[in-house]
Amino acid sequence: MSRVVYFDYLSSTPVDPRVAEAMSQCLTLEGTFGNPASRSHRYGWEAEMAVETARQQLASLINADLREVAWTSGATESDNLALKGVFAAAREAGNATPHIVTSAIEHKAILDSCRYLETQGAAVTYLHPSEDGLVQPEVVRDAIQGNTCLVSVMHANNEIGTINDIAEIAAICRSAGVPIHVDAAQTVGKIPLDVKALDIDLLSMSAHKFYGPKGIGAFYQRRSPKVAVNAQMHGGGHERGLRAGTLATHQIVGMGCAAAIAQESLSTEVQRLTALREALWSSLSDIEGLTMNGHLTQRLPGALNISVSDVEGEALLLSLPEFAISTGSACTSASLEPSYVLRALGLPDALAHSSLRVSLGRFSDENDVRLFSERLHEVVPRLRRSAA
Ligand SMILES: *Cc1c(COP(=O)(O)O)cnc(C)c1O
């Protein structure tokens, strides 16, 4: 099989070889395989030390305190914990109809949790983004009510790559006295993120979006002021009672190692990928009927989402077999519904169907980008001629 260029870094990333090496040291008898909760022997102590080193690495990446980071199975679980945990605590505190403010273009982990909470008596406001895919801070302000228990807005969108102004949104929440949760699965490890500077209460993270393994994530809960979050997983009181379950040492070490690598390479990677994405976009500018979805510049360094007019989306994808790209989100492309994110931006169904999400990452280079541009220049006119 010839090589397929991987251009789907927003969907998942390959584990960095250094991360894989660190993880492999945590599995066998010779390695750090013990249960981090075993207090009576060195296998346990060593595993606990490895877990705490990783916690320090991740906390440092987002400028959090060690005690503010809990391990979960991924951003999906962290999102569930934030929404269901705050909702349950608000109920307990006497809020009969807890109100949640979120946006219509959140990840399904947020939207489906909100839908579920509506069946449990929550009221949810789904904010509409602007045409360029951003959640406007004023719109958040207007949506907050007396019974609002949480605002949940994503940092960067996983389909179009746009980055919300979280500092501004968090300031509005602060002055209204409402806690804010941020799904940062697409930004942690990719762009600078400082939970203190942004003034965030709760944050969701996922290792496999920044060259760590799948099945491990983290939940940041600010210590002071602290928002009450009821645990959703019980048994054993791990992670300060917030999330029970034996800690997956190898996964956690992998996430910590990925965080340390990200921290050290962040600023150069942001520059390199921004330049690469801008070069790609400008090389495509002479193709007629091509539009970028989402804000032109307020976006993740490696993320581009484009719509190509007058071609069939399916045909377009089939004509580019040498690239691993996606149309719409990976999570929704199993169905043939046009992407709900692109629809929320006001795109007609035809343009939403003929959209491509091209996402570059650590192992992408100029050659990959040049090849893609060449192929698109060939394919688009050919598809239009055959359709005419
Ligand atoms: C990938 C992603 C998730 C889900 O993370 P998992 O760790 O795969 O569960 C949630 N939110 C956003 C924005 C994502 O990109």
Automatic annotation (TrEMBL):
<protein>
    <recommendedName>
        <fullName>cysteine desulfurase</fullName>
        <ecNumber>2.8.1.7</ecNumber>
    </recommendedName>
</protein>
<dbReference type="InterPro" id="IPR015421">
    <property type="entry name" value="PyrdxlP-dep_Trfase_major"/>
</dbReference>
<feature type="domain" description="Aminotransferase class V">
    <location>
        <begin position="5"/>
        <end position="371"/>
    </location>
</feature>
<dbReference type="InterPro" id="IPR020578">
    <property type="entry name" value="Aminotrans_V_PyrdxlP_BS"/>
</dbReference>
<dbReference type="GO" id="GO:0008483">
    <property type="term" value="F:transaminase activity"/>
</dbReference>
<dbReference type="InterPro" id="IPR016454">
    <property type="entry name" value="Cysteine_dSase"/>
</dbReference>
<keyword id="KW-0032">Aminotransferase</keyword>
<dbReference type="InterPro" id="IPR015424">
    <property type="entry name" value="PyrdxlP-dep_Trfase"/>
</dbReference>
<dbReference type="InterPro" id="IPR015422">
    <property type="entry name" value="PyrdxlP-dep_Trfase_small"/>
</dbReference>
<keyword id="KW-0479">Metal-binding</keyword>
<comment type="similarity">
    <text>Belongs to the class-V pyridoxal-phosphate-dependent aminotransferase family. NifS/IscS subfamily.</text>
</comment>
<keyword id="KW-0411">Iron-sulfur</keyword>
<keyword id="KW-0408">Iron</keyword>
<keyword id="KW-0663">Pyridoxal phosphate</keyword>
<dbReference type="InterPro" id="IPR000192">
    <property type="entry name" value="Aminotrans_V_dom"/>
</dbReference>
<dbReference type="Pfam" id="PF00266">
    <property type="entry name" value="Aminotran_5"/>
</dbReference>
<keyword id="KW-0808">Transferase</keyword>
